[in-house]
Amino acid sequence: MNQNNDFKFSNNVIGIPLAFVFIIWFVYWVEIKFGMNFNKLGVLPRTLSGFKGIFFTHFIHSDTKHLFNNSVPLFVLLMSLMYFYRTVALKVLIYGGLLTGLLTWIIGRESYHIGASGIVYLLFSFVFFSGIIKSHYRLVAMSLITIFLYGSMIWYIFPIKEGMSWEGHLSGLLTGILFAFVYRKYGIVKEKYVFSKTEFDERFDEDGNYIEPSTEEEVEIPSIQYKYIYKIQEEE
Fold this sequence. Notes:
single chain; mainly alpha; 8 helices; 52% helix; Membrane associated rhomboid family serine protease; membrane; protease; hydrolase; peptidase activity
């Protein structure tokens, strides 16, 4: 595989992040425009009626601040996902989003959990850990940039702020780690350098022991032919 082809810009790198951000802003606009409230479409843990929130929770936000705080990292991390992990990007986004919602439904408090922050933590976790696991120098560099920009988010997987779904954050983080491990052999991976053998290397076995050259090889001795000229013949 030519890994240089894996680092190719495509319309999806910008298009899908823009589309996702547009959808969550459009949903919020609909709520404001028509005086609606979609909070009850969020995840309500361990209830049958709240199970549908697994599919809708990532598109619903409580206020403009909540929406804006998710939009910027969502766009940046999703763009990173689409560029560096394009072979598995949609699987991570779709299946990872559903699994994040499911885990939130299992471990969350009895309250409606809404917002795209679960997806943000999913992307943050996947991009960071996948780069470390694969050990490709470009992906490791992206991991370091990610932790530099958004490393402080790690504190919000703990219940340190009232009214914040730390369970959704934790679910996204764990899902990202899981998917980084599952897709560790997909897409770009670090190539192992293979040394070419020389005649000197052939003198050693698999355990590194020196192999003595064989002494039983037949040595072909060239034949020498002599021609005698007698002195009597010379006088004649």
